[in-house]
Amino acid sequence: MPPLRSTDSPRAAMSTQIPVVLLSHRGPVSFDRDATSGERTATRGAGGLVTALSGLAAHLDEAVWVFVAAGEEDVAVARETEGAPARLLLDPEPRLLEDGDDQEGRQFPVRLLEIPHEVHEPFYGVISNPLLWFVQHRLYDLTRSPSLGREERTAFEEGYVVANELAADAVIEQVAKSATPPVVLLHDYHFYLVGDLVRQSCPDALISHFVHIPWPEPDSWRVLPPDMRNRLLNGLLGCDIVAFHTRADARAFQLCCQELLGLPTDLRSMTVSVAGRTVRVRVYPISIDIPALEAIAHTDASDEHLVDLDHTLGTGRLILRVDRTDPSKNIVRGFQAYDLLLAEHPEHHGNVVFLALLQPSRQDVKEYADYLAAIGAAASSVNAHHGTGDWQPVDLRYASDMALATAAYRRCDVLVVNAVADGMNLVAKEAVVLNERDMVLALSEATGAHDELGQFAVTLHPFDVAQQAEALHEALTMPPQLRRERREHAALIVHRNDVKRWLTVQLRDLAALAGPDGSSWTDGADRDHTGRPA
Amino acid sequence: MPPLRSTDSPRAAMSTQIPVVLLSHRGPVSFDRDATSGERTATRGAGGLVTALSGLAAHLDEAVWVFVAAGEEDVAVARETEGAPARLLLDPEPRLLEDGDDQEGRQFPVRLLEIPHEVHEPFYGVISNPLLWFVQHRLYDLTRSPSLGREERTAFEEGYVVANELAADAVIEQVAKSATPPVVLLHDYHFYLVGDLVRQSCPDALISHFVHIPWPEPDSWRVLPPDMRNRLLNGLLGCDIVAFHTRADARAFQLCCQELLGLPTDLRSMTVSVAGRTVRVRVYPISIDIPALEAIAHTDASDEHLVDLDHTLGTGRLILRVDRTDPSKNIVRGFQAYDLLLAEHPEHHGNVVFLALLQPSRQDVKEYADYLAAIGAAASSVNAHHGTGDWQPVDLRYASDMALATAAYRRCDVLVVNAVADGMNLVAKEAVVLNERDMVLALSEATGAHDELGQFAVTLHPFDVAQQAEALHEALTMPPQLRRERREHAALIVHRNDVKRWLTVQLRDLAALAGPDGSSWTDGADRDHTGRPA
What we know:
Shape of chain A: globular
Largest interface: A-B, 47 and 47 residues
Structural class of chain A: alpha/beta
Distance between the termini of chain A: 15 Å
Helix content of chain A: 40-55%
Oligomer: homodimer
Number of helices of chain A: 19
């Protein structure tokens, strides 16, 4: 595989300088008021998607990012700017620029979208989460839930549909303001209906929708009422490109178009025909912003955490996981596997610690609160079974602390990702890049990351606790030379397909589609960085 | 569609008189000892599959049926006959014929297979039920279960695999005894490995495997460890035909061969290529034995139940369901929908009774015991919400009583089948044939029966309680003329595709394959009895 050419940048890919309109639920900044001074504060948005898109927006000459005003102060900003974009300066701390403020640095226009509370609540709290999240990660106990009724229908019609219409209106306004038809980049499961709404108003727009969470096969979608699932699918089919992280997701989407909508679908060329148009289904595995990550990992805070970890662990081995407490992350089975490992291999007693850095998530949803309790119970159980006065095998910490996480990435010997379903999982990519001890990646076959990194990892089967225990033992006993080769190869893959390349390839495809000849599309085959046959 | 010709019988289909070896877990007879006299007793096997196969075996000149010895007395018979077939006389009550007993009537050889308890328990109680049953009906709460460990692996290796080897040995012995290569008909999820085992010993045998429960898409099979799921698939691919009740099941099986095994699969011709052989995937929707059913429905016992029902109901309407208490049957959501119906439509109060005839099932499995409790709670809840001194809206009876069931079939106004997944559901077919009041069939889209009868039914969406409530209201208020037309058309479809035709078409296909020219195979398209485009 040749190295990337220096012209492979988002800007070069969009050499025609087509304007871009971005839409996502969360944005690159959120506003608040300082409790003491009463002054407006701005905080950089977190998460892999926001980091990736921030890089994109800052690299383009003409891009506006539409996102939902999350809190009261966001709404205040949205009202002050009256639906017009304001210029956001990203560094060193984010802030909105006043008219005439010609500060240099990474910056781009943002448009905060106000969605009334009575719309946002059912849109976000009933349909997007949990309904779509649960369906797409297959988290329902189908014998009991979902039990769909009037509430969900109303939430769909008066929440999800209305929120999508509001978002589409904002996008359409931005498209209308543009001298040349822009590229519209829609993101994630909150806005499946927007593509078709924009298409109706802007037939010439180039529209792409990126789905960042797993796309399950038609069986799983049949859990939703036919009307609802068909409208979601048809919303996406308003786009020119529907994009996913993995071939399996892309294939499942096409099977849905075939089976649920009866549309002609070509699984080889990855196209769906609908209403005289051709929709392309594409695969672009998302990645990380390595310089930004390294900057966090080489702060004093991270270094101090590393010293602490070294002091605590001594020569002991560190098994690490870093996750939200989402049931899809499979944290309980992970502890069960570790319990079995310790029961079967007393040689590890006293020599290993499983550090779980967990961020509590969605505790207003019963399934999540129950899951948090189950995590605590499983961790306690391991410590009760095997712990001594000198050694507690599980170190469970609830925190969202990137300085600590990056220190742990650097120090760990095994990184565990055993999710039952995960669109990509960027933790795996972050850890292999930062790690300084030739850690072994223990990676679930049900993550998007497994497509790229699986051959350099110990594969975990998410439902098989005994297999996970064996895999952990294999990871802990792998010869140093093999560990090194695998970790280095995995890191190389992440370096080659970093987030800049993720963006560049997408924009190149869109630029090709915008040109007179749409034939030079990347079909994903030339981006199999693992070198495996596609 | 032309009427069936009189030559369309199992015997005519097998005009070449190829011998047949049948294998199923349950058989046409089970033995016991009378508590008082100590004499051996024989009871006819129950269930749709056993009834169907009994008809087949009795119609063929040369057929032997291998099945598992279930209880102590079955084992005693197995040992007495020392693995050799004994002749079973079916009517009026089943009994084994002694040598030289030339009693006339329906009869065929049976071979009871002893599977040692320590093999049968893990084979049946861990792998077949619940593991395969749960995976194939998608009953797992994947955030928690299954949590596969050593027990399941051992149960697979020392239970499922060994039981399949024992069954294969018995089948192979029967094949070896045959002068001409016989047709081997394997049945259901207990014996997925047998096809390949028989193929290895008998390369020339014609082998078919019929899967009677839903076949889910690859996502669901990924719940099983790769080694286990691949062995199950490869076992089936030892056959010449793998048969299902619906096109959706057949398609999902082919998708599994494509995605999980990477085998060349032609979804149009419904074939899978494996090891130089072509495996045909076929669709034969099972049906009922109408004369046998009518015989039960016109006994004094059934008539007495009908008088009782008429007396109790008066002019009231009867909603009926007849099910095992399996979580796949979706009984709880059915009561929730009825509750919503009564809340929104007080005009039905006092005028309708929901009779649920439920057969307790697998109460040694925790999920089943929990589900039985949830059923009771849901039924009580409806009666507490809406019941009066004169009227209890739910009549919940735990019974397995065909006389009562057939009386209820005759009397009901609405039959409810709202399963979350069901291979076929013969209750729907039985009811439309026997009903005397132009009942409305309210039928889940997730049943095999919906393919044939859906257009004459009110379709139920199994996860949407509000939709089920609306559908029940529609059923209760449908104009009499429309009810009549639909019920009659549905009954006509069942009469045309009765169990004899189900068997005949399969045997015709197998006979064609046995002949010099395998090209005249039925591909399922000419058997779409609803007249809908395939």
